[in-house]
Design brief:
The complex is a heterodimer of chains A (165) and B (609). Chain A is α+β, with helices and mostly antiparallel strands and 165 residues long. Chain A is built from four helices and eleven strands.
């Protein structure tokens, strides 16, 4: 996983192909390195956990393991939406822990060349913090935002997460 | 000097075995002092030391060999009856055993340090000279021991001991051992004491090794059987499913499935018991160091104490065993130091001069109950409250509002002590705080029974295991929470108009006490959806010495649950101790009563804000 990520960022492998899982949130398309994703599951019963940040939906039972679930809509300050049959939980390994992220819809796995990744635009109008955007991919018919979840759970956020009162 | 032992496995075996032998040895030696005529016991002690000696010489630990060899020689003479056991000899032997423990600890630590062996060996040697008569052997030892001690004890103890020893001939006839028994009473508070053994003893405790488990082969076989059974049931389940899919037996499916789930239930609960048993250790592992501690303490304090141990075979989880050692030491210390009176005071109070401390363990449902009971002077509530005021731990108003139970709870405050001056035994006000902290960590409960002038009893109620717990499932506004049953004291159905407000805190009058209440719905921020109900339930939980009532919407029942961690992102949530998976696959959160009671103040602040 480490090598995959560094590949993403390094310039010298400019022509390297990487695979991204693309998903939708509020009509925008996002991509995440496929190597980060453990599995994609349908919505199931989420148990609310009290006294956590708003974007923590709760916990689920993933085959005997209890993992936290995070609503990306809330995390990115988007409008809340009803869960429907296309809603998915993407289970990912973030800094060594399994976590689930709720997204509107998972569409496909795409291959792109690293050359296509452009640095994120300097001004970000949506609520996504600048730091968790690894870049944007501008193709003829689509615009993809590449996310880096490791960065999203930056050190001090994780601390806040665990000490939240 | 590092250890030049090639074979690591051999070394580990040696350490495991030696540690076990040494632990047992302490206990045996103390029993031997009480019944010196027990030849079987004597032989066992001799064999243990001999085994340690043999193994260490095989592995080339010369220092160990030196000490064990001399100890063995002394024991051998005792065994043959050439020496009579006295508390002086016992002290020296115990000191030697402590030295052996220190040496073994060094080996375990991976580094052999040069230690002063000569001091201990020199004390052993006088008992070995066969030429001298025993009276003369004993005399110089007594002399030297007395020199070590700043304040010499009266000679009363030394003289009668030396006399029968010399009167008794060298070969041991059964009659003469009987004489010996009379002459050597049970732990002698007045006999000269040696302070040194205490320090190495602390080191020796670290020897207890818990990283490996010895499991009875039979238990392992049983386990394998159970797993085989489980595999069988799984196959049956797969078969049943494929039968159902092919539509072969749709009518009987329900019946078959019912039978299958019953069998599965049976097999898994058996399996659970088996695995649990493997994690279990007899509480003896902790208890067996106490006779030694009590013996030393009684001497230091000049008190006569009989320690009675009941139920040492009671088994409990390793994790619990590891944690209760310290609290028990503090409680026993307190019982001896504060509880029991000196022999003179006891006689004045019309009691026998020897005090009794009863240490007992027993299973009670899914809990283990450990009690430390003494027949001393008991706890004087007036004195306790006065001291707490003096030390500024409470205010007059607070005291006025306290019942007798609450006053006893003051004992647990950090910094509380009834002693005017701190001694090396007690008085710094730390001990009871340690007790409380450890018992809290284990989700246990402390109760104090007290009768002024008659004695006091500290009762610890602990869960059997920390991995699988009995829990009470409750509903809080449509959300299910699980409360560890070990901390639940009682539940009751209450009409909402029975609640009172005192200083912004909701309380409930419960018999003769006033119980603070906590609305779980508020603490956990659940959406209120059953506000129209006039009754609700109060679950009274206790953590260590504190009690609090949790207001819940409904009680759902009791269930055995396996604790799952919430992962490191959600660790340290106040009031939530973990999670568990219910029968329907959903996650239910486990309430952590300790977190709730500790966080009671912040919850109050939030309420008023």
């Amino acid at each position: 996983m480490e090598t995959a990520l560094t590949k993403l960022k390094s310039e010298e492998y400019g022509g390297e192909l990487i695979q991204l899982v693309s998903f939708n949130l509020e009509k925008e398309e996002y991509g995440i390195n496929v190597l980060m994703v453990r599995e994609i599951i349908r919505m199931l019963n989420i148990t609310r956990v009290p006294n956590t940040p708003r974007y923590v939906e709760g916990v689920i039972n993933l085959r005997g393991k209890v993992i936290p679930i995070i609503s990306l809509r809330r995390k990115f300050d988007l409008m809340e939406a009803e869960y429907d049959k296309r809603t998915r939980i993407m289970v990912m390994e973030v800094v060594g822990e399994l976590m689930g992220f709720i997204v509107d819809e998972v569409s496909e796995v795409i291959r792109i060349s690293e050359k296509e990744i452009q640095p994120p635009p300097p001004v970000v109008s949506s609520g996504i913090e600048q730091e968790c955007m690894a870049g944007v991919i501008n193709q003829a018919d689509r615009l993809l935002v590449l996310l880096d979840l490791e960065r999203m759970f930056s050190a001090d956020e994780r601390r806040m997460f665990s000490n939240v009162a | 000097m590092s250890i030049d032992c090639e074979d690591q496995e051999l070394l580990e075996g040696f350490l495991a075995e030696t540690t076990e032998l040494l632990e047992k040895l302490d206990d045996d030696l103390i029993s031997l002092e009480k019944s010196p005529e027990d030849a079987e016991l004597m032989n066992r002690i001799f064999r243990s030391i001999h085994t340690v000696k043999g193994a260490s010489s095989f592995l080339g630990f010369d220092l160990l060999v030196k000490v064990t060899h001399k100890t063995e020689d002394v024991l051998n003479r005792l065994r043959k009856g050439e020496l009579t056991l006295s508390s002086v000899i016992m002290d020296v032997i115990l000191e030697a055993v402590d030295l052996v423990k220190t040496l073994v600890a060094d080996i375990k630590g991976g580094d052999i340090v040069e230690r002063d062996l000569e001091g201990t060996i020199a004390k052993l040697i006088p008992f070995l000279s066969e030429s001298a008569t025993e009276a003369t052997v004993l005399a110089p030892v007594f002399a030297s021991l007395k020199e070590e001690k700043a304040a010499p004890e009266p000679d009363t103890a030394a003289a009668p001991q030396a006399a029968p020893a010399s009167a008794q001939g060298a070969p041991a006839a059964p009659e003469s051992t009987a004489v010996a028994k009379q002459s050597v009473p049970v732990p002698q508070p007045k006999a000269p004491q040696i302070k040194e053994p205490q320090k190495p003893a602390a080191k020796g405790e670290e020897l207890a090794d818990n990283s490996t488990v010895r499991v009875d082969v039979k238990r392992l076989d049983d386990l394998m059987n159970q797993v085989g059974e489980l595999v069988l049931e799984r196959n049956r389940m797969i078969q049943l499913h494929s039968d159902y899919q092919t539509g072969l037996d749709p009518t009987g499916f329900g019946d078959d499935f019912g039978k299958l789930s019953k069998r599965l239930n049976f097999v898994t609960s058996e399996l659970q018991m088996q695995v649990l048993k493997m994690r279990m250790l007899p509480v003896e592992k902790v208890f067996k160091k106490f006779p030694r501690i009590v013996r030393n303490l009684a001497r230091d304090l000049g008190k006569e104490v009989d320690l009675v141990i009941i139920g040492e075979e009671t088994e409990l989880d390793r994790s619990v065993v590891d944690e209760i050692g310290d609290p028990l030491i503090h409680l026993i210390r307190n019982a001896l130091d504060h509880g029991l009176e000196t022999p003179d005071q006891r006689l004045e109070a019309g009691k026998g001069s020897t005090g009794t401390v009863v240490l007992s363990a027993a299973h009670e449902g899914n809990q283990i109950v450990i009690s430390i009971k003494d027949d001393g002077r008991g706890i004087d509530p007036d004195r306790v409250s006065r001291k707490a005021l003096e030390k500024g731990l409470i205010t007059e108003e607070q005291l006025a509002a306290m019942g007798s139970r609450e006053i006893l709870d003051l004992l647990f405050l950090p910094g509380f002590s009834t002693k005017e001056q701190a001694t090396d035994l007690s008085g710094r006000g730390v001990g009871m705080d340690v007790v409380r902290t450890n018992i809290r960590k284990l989700n246990g409960i402390i109760e104090i029974k007290n009768e002024v002038g008659r004695g006091s009893e500290f009762i610890l109620k602990l869960p059997l295991t920390l991995a699988i717990i009995q829990s009470l499932l409750v509903e809080v506004e449509r959300e299910v929470y699980s409360i560890p049953l070990a901390s639940v004291i009682e539940t009751m159905r209450v009409n909402k108009n029975e609640f009172h407000m005192i200083g912004g805190q909701e309380v409930l009058k419960l018999r003769d006490s006033v119980l603070p209440l906590l609305r779980l719905q508020q603490t956990f921020g659940c959406e209120e959806c059953t506000a129209d109900r006039s009754t609700c339930y109060v679950v009274i939980v206790g953590v260590a010495e504190k009690r609090i009532g949790l207001i819940v919407t409904r009680l759902l029942g009791q269930q055995e649950v396996a604790i799952k961690s919430l992962g490191k992102f959600l660790a340290n949530l106040p009031g939530i101790g973990g999670s568990t998976i219910m029968g329907d696959g959903r996650v239910a959160l486990i309430v952590d009563p300790m977190g709730l009671i500790g966080g009671g103040e912040t919850a109050g602040v939030r309420k008023s804000a």
